[in-house]
Amino acid sequence: MAPRPNYGITRIDQPEKKNHGFYVRITHKGKTQQKYFPDKSCGSKTKALKAAREYRDGLVAKLPKYKQAAAARKKRKIKRSGVVGVTHVVSQSAKGKVYEYWQAAWVDKTGKRKTAKFSIDRYGNKKALEMAKKARKEAPRG
Length: 142
Prior knowledge:
The chain is α+β, with helices and mostly antiparallel strands. The protein has helices at residues 39-42, 45-61, 65-72, 120-123, 125-138; strands spanning 9-14, 19-28, 31-38, 86-92, 98-107, 113-119. A hairpin with a 4-residue loop joins strand 1 and strand 2 (19-28).
C-alpha cells in the first residue's frame, strides 16, 4: 500500500536564500527522520522530488502496517480560515482524546513564534474562528 504522493514531503522555496527543494519528515513514536533534497544538487526540481519520494518510501516501509495504512489514506479536507496565520488544528492526546481548535500564529518583536489556541468544543466553531482571527490581527508583530 503506497503512501499518498506527497505524504511527509514539503516544498521549500526561499528565493532570498536561494533555497529550493523538498523536505521529507516522518515521525513515529516521537522519533523524527528528516532529510532535505535541494533542486540544485539533485539536478532539477523533478529529480529532487523523485529522490525525496524514494527516501520517504524507504522510511514508510519500515513503519508498522497501521502507520503505513494511515499514510496511504486520503487526507481529509481541512477547514480554511481565509486569514494567513489562522489555521484549523485537530490533534490527539496520548490517551486518544481528539482536540479541535483554531490557532492564530505570528512572530513577535523579538523574533519568537507565538500562538493562541481557541477550542471549538468550548467556544463553538464560529466563535473560536472569530477569536483566532482577532488574536492574529491584534498580535504585536516585529
